[in-house]
Amino acid sequence: MVFLSITAADSRTVYALSDNTWDETTLTWANRPSYGAALASAYMPGPNRYIESDVTSYIQAEYAGNGFASICVNDPVANHNTGIDFYTKENVSNIPQLVITTTPSSARIAAMEVEEDIFKQAYNLP
């Protein structure tokens, strides 16, 4: 989720980045990675709100590949003049958030049940 301050309701598109080797301290407009496929859209209904986009399938595919994922939030309309301010980690409030929701696999649940049984046996618990 990213917190935005905008001048009017608008939308943006989340794109996959083709290059994961960029570095926050050296990234500039001139050396930015190119973006590829559109992953999701984010509608911004008004000022000072968090927006969120579901990029689960992209993150899962990248995790299965090289383990790195980079995304870009950009205006799908070239030369569009709606101003948007993205809050960054340096902002005291409303910092960007990566929200990950997981569901345990059946193998992990089985392992937890075995660990629980071993714990109960070790301490003579019912």
Q: How large is the radius of gyration?
A: 21 Å
The end-to-end span amounts to 44 Å
Number of domains: 1
| Count of β-strands | 6
How would a crystallographer describe the biggest sheet?
A: 3 strands, antiparallel
A few lines on this structure:
The chain is α+β, with helices and mostly antiparallel strands and 126 residues long. It has helices spanning 56-64, 106-122; strands at residues 2-6, 10-17, 35-44, 49-51, 71-74, 84-86.
Task: Provide keyphrases for this structure.
three-stranded antiparallel sheet, 2 helices
Describe this structure in words.
It is built from 2 helices and 6 strands, in the order E-E-E-E-H-E-E-H. It has one domain. It has a 3-stranded antiparallel β-sheet, with no helix packed on it. The chain has 126 residues and is of the alpha+beta class. It has helices at residues 56-64, 106-122; strands spanning 2-6, 10-17, 35-44, 49-51, 71-74, 84-86.
Secondary structure layout:
Blueprint: E1 2-6, E2 10-17, E3 35-44, E4 49-51, H1 56-64, E5 71-74, E6 84-86, H2 106-122
Antiparallel strand pairs: 1-4, 1-6, 2-3, 2-5
